[in-house]
Every structure is written in structure tokens, then in C-alpha cells.
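Quick one:
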Amino acid sequence: MNKDLSKVRNIGISAHIDSGKTTLTERILFYTKRIHAIHEVRGKDGVGAKMDSMELEKERGITIQSAATYCSWKNISINIIDTPGHVDFTVEVERALRVLDGAILVLCSVGGVQSQSITVNRQMTRYNVPRIAFINKCDRTGANPEKVTRQLREKLDLNAHMLQMPIGLESDLKGMVDLISMKAIYFEGPNGEEIIAKEIPADMQAMAQEKREALLEEVSMFSEELMEAVLEGGDIDEQVIYDAIRKGTLSLQFTPVMMGSAYKNKGVQLLLDAVERYLPCPTDVTNMALDLKDNEKEFEVSNNPDDPLIMLAFKLEDGRYGQLTYIRTYQGKLAKGDTVYNNRTGKKTKIGRLCRMHANEMEEIESCGSGDIVALFGVDCASGDTFTSEEISCSMTSMHIPEPVISLAIIPKDNKAQINMSKALNRFTKEDPTFKSYVDHETGETIISGMGELHLEVYVERMKREYNALVEVGAPQVAYRETISQRAEFNYTHKKQTGGSGQYGRVAGYMEPMEEGEFEFVDSIVGGVIPREFISSCEKGFRKSLEKGSLCGATITGVRCVINDGAYHTVDSSDIAFQLAAIGAFKEGYLKAKPIILEPIMKVAVEGPTEFQGAVMGSINQRRGMIIGTTEEGSYSVVEAEVPLSEMFGYSTVLRSLTQGKAEFTMEFATFKPVPKGVGEQLVKAYQAERKNA
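Output:
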């Protein structure tokens, strides 16, 4: 039996930290009867939200890992992924959006569009994900859905319009006016389960009529039928309006705005109706794959269950039951006992167990088909691998993985901790592509790197809790980069004569800076002065040289190496000889090419009362920051700036004392920029001293 894909919704819930995403997911699960009792994120009962299953999540009241669940509403099946709001866990959002068809962008009715909302929206746009905006926390003091809708238009450049009007605000929030059915909707019962539709209060009718007309005018752009109906006047069929909004939403030209208060159990059921009406089913979305047998030519996946199987592993997790691999199927069917093929490794795997996930619980299933999000057990793979049936070889287009910007040295307390630590690192690096670990050969220390202080802090804490790996942590280090600022020639001969055969290789050419990209190797050798089999040896040597620059020992980036001359010896030339010749040539050219140090610059947004704005700006200026803009709304202001990461350590403590604990800040990576001369000299000096002492 092939299931009806038009009745499936794969959605994500994304937002700025503390906008109430997890609380909203809890209510959705309650109303769709997946859970029978409501627990709060920071509830007094100590249970914590269903979707925050990790102990750390319950303690901190934040989501760290995206959790998957599914539920049914009326006649549709919904797969939900609750994603973290904190920028340090941005890869969780990236990989969720990569496999989702639609999303709910949750906003706080007081905070409005905040820095992370902008990031999340940018990620949705990158993967062409249609979205509904849900303005949450309308029961809070200072709630203003109108203002937030305006911000959606101005700050995010979305064509956003309210489909509802609140009846009362702040502590007086009673319900919503539905501008399509023109009814007042109230939520009664202990947990708002009973939905009561009444006439619109008399004092709101004129306003509601005006807003409805403005809405219809906007959405009639997407439907000729609706346009005619509007021009003719009279009653308009609600379905025609729903179809027009759906069309606008799917084409990413319209963003419906819903509102409510998840905490106060208002508006959640209407949001579920909107998910059904306006968000895409799997067949509404075009997904592309690359045909590996045909020179990586793009083709559209079909969603047809009878076609060869294509599915993407988008997330790995080591749960109580061993390694879980979350997959999204794009076409074909998968059943227990089937053999699938990993297109990256070329390995075959037999599927032993198939499960549907509900946060950290699971339900065994026999088979799944196109458009499903399920979990597999015991499959050895990495995040982002494509699995197919044997007759096809393709790869789903990849997702964007940002580079780590901060690193820490971790030292295990004893031998047992050392073994447990390497187990933990092995798992974490497989799970999270933005978390990396390596051993520094000079110092012998294990270095972990990631997206921010909180990101690394969480992983160190998980090492201690989940693996009993007691580690000491060094001071955070900024991930600097080195690059060159001008073109330089090189011509290097590697000669070594020992007993027996010697080593010989000459490599000549030039290096130059690149605008974009990390490294490019160009082979301009003519006349066989370096034999073909040694060209790749030269590239290996250059790539090896990029690992550590000579200024501060950072990775070298933005270099194009061109080889156009060389020489070889029929007996003494070998792979290793040309690798060493290329390393020598790189060193020679690098020093001539005026190398510089680059540092990560962070985009920082500080939000807090306007009275502290001057002090906040002063604290940013002291940190070599550049203020990009300030916005003021009432007594609240936001200062946006670009600040070097090296200056941001310990900023939260400074900000707290400056603003009596009333301001908060978020930051995310923006770009790499050259360091000022004085700072560069200090870094070089410190590196030289470190090498001397080593």
C-alpha cells in the first residue's frame, strides 16, 4: 500500500533562543495526543520538556540537540524536528532544514526579530524552505504582534501578513480573531483543548474588516479566482483564500503570520491547521541529487515509492540503544532486512531495525517510504551520507558546514580518562561536523575546536557525564588563519644523497593570494620536466605545508600555488622527494609573499535597556569592535557590531556588571580579517617563545 504523500508534513521549529520553541512543541504533542501531561521547560516538577531529553538540556533549560518526533493532526501525519536556538549549535539547524519541507519560525511578541531569528531565516532561505511565522508569548507584558509583523517585513524582507488578530493582549489575552473565517476563536478547558468559535466582539469588527481587506488584497496576487471574487464583492469561499495563501507560501513570496501563547495554551491548534493548509507536502518540494555515474549531473528526485531508493543520513546520535542514524527518504521504499549501499564509502549495509523516534523513545516499524523521517540502528556512516539501492549511485546535494572558530586544549586526568576521552571524541566528531579534534604534534595536547564557548563547554561536560572522562581544560584559543598578501616566485631543489639511492626533485613556479577559497593547485608543467606521476606528490607537499604557517602556527588559507618548471632524476626522483621539494618551495615562496595573520570577526548583537546603550557601545569600542548599527524600540535598544573573537572572552561577565544584569548578547561568526600590526607582532612573538620552550 502506497501512502498518500499529500497527507505528510515534514516540518522544523526554529527560532531565537528563549522564544518558546520547545514549549510550543510540547503543546503540539499534547493536542495531537502524543503526550498526556504537559511539563514545562524549567518546570518545578523537575520532569522537563519531553523534547529536551538530555540531562544538560533539562538543567540549562536550552535545546542542544535537535530532537525528532511525529504526530497526527486531523487527517495529516506530521514529522517535527525541534531545533536549538543557540547559535553555537547552528549545524543542528542546518541539517534539520536540509531534510525538511517546511518550517515554523517562532518569534517572541516582545523581543520580535532578534539576531538568531535573522540567522535562522537566512538558513531557511538558503534551503528554500517555505515558512509560517508564529508570534508566541502574546501574554507577556509589552507584547506587540503588529510590531513583530512589521519587523518581519523590514528586517527579514519577508512578505509577512497577519491571518489573525489578538483579542486582548498581555495578561488579558483571551483568544484570536480569524481574519479568513471572520470568527472570534476562544480556547477553553483546563489546557485550552476546547475551541469555541463566536461572533467577533463589536468593538473589534471595523478593525477586523479593514485588516481582512488588506490581507485579501495581498494574497489575491497569487490567485486569479480570488482576485475576481474580491473585485465582485460578496461572500468569498474560504477554500479559495486558503489555496491562494498556500500558493504564495510555497513560492516563498508570502509568509502567513499566526499568533498565540503556547505557555497559556492559546493558538496552538490554529497553528496546526495552518501547517496542514499552507506548508508543503513532500511532493510540493523539488529535491536535487547528483548522479555519480554521469559526471555528477543534477537530477530531480521523484518521491515515487516504486523508483530506486534514495535517502539521506542527516544526523547521528549515540543513544541508549547504540548508534542511531536519522534518515530522510526521498524516493523508493525501505523495509527491514533490505540491503542499502553507502555512496561515499561504497559499503553495503543490511537494515536490521527501523524505528520512528519520539524524542528519546522509539517505535519499531516494518517499512517506510518516500517522505518519511525515521531512524536506523547499527549503520556505520557519517552525517550527510547518501544511501541508495544497488541499481543507482547518487549523492544528495550537500549542506553548508561552517568552519570552527575557537579551540581548547583538554588534558585527561589519568590513563582511564584518556581511553574514555578518545571514545567520546570519536563519537562527537562523527555526530557533529562543526566539532573537530586533533593532537598537536609539538605539544602532544589534544585540541578540540568548535563554534563558540558554550559549544565546547557542552561537549566537555558531556565527556564527563556520559563517558566518565575527567579532563582538565586549557584556556580558549582563537582559531587564527594565515595568508599571503602578494605574489611570489619559488624555485627549490631538494637533494639528498645517502647510501644507496638518493632523493632529487626540483619544483619551480609562483604563489598568489586568492579572493575566495582555501587552496588551489594549478599544474602548468609542459614538456614533462616533472613526470605526470609526481604532479600529485607536489600537490600533497603543498597541502601539507598549509597545516602550519610560520607566523603563529595557524592554518594557511587563500593561496593558489602554480607550478610551471622543475627537474627530475631518472633514479633518485620519487614520490617523497617531490613532496619534500614542494614543502621546501612553499616555505621559500611563503616568506617572500608577505604573509599576514587573519582573525575571526564575530557579529555581536547586544540587547538591553536604552539607558545602558552608551556603556555597551563603550565596552564594544574597547574591544576593537566596530559598531554597525543601533535600533531603539521604546525603552529597549539593540547594538550590532563586529568584534574580534579574541576580545570577546569573558564579555558576559563584563556586560552583566555594566547593565545590572539586564542586557544579553548573542554572537556568530561573520568573517576573517587581517589583525592590526601590533596584535600580529604579539602573536608572532608568543609563537616564537612557545617553540623555543617546546
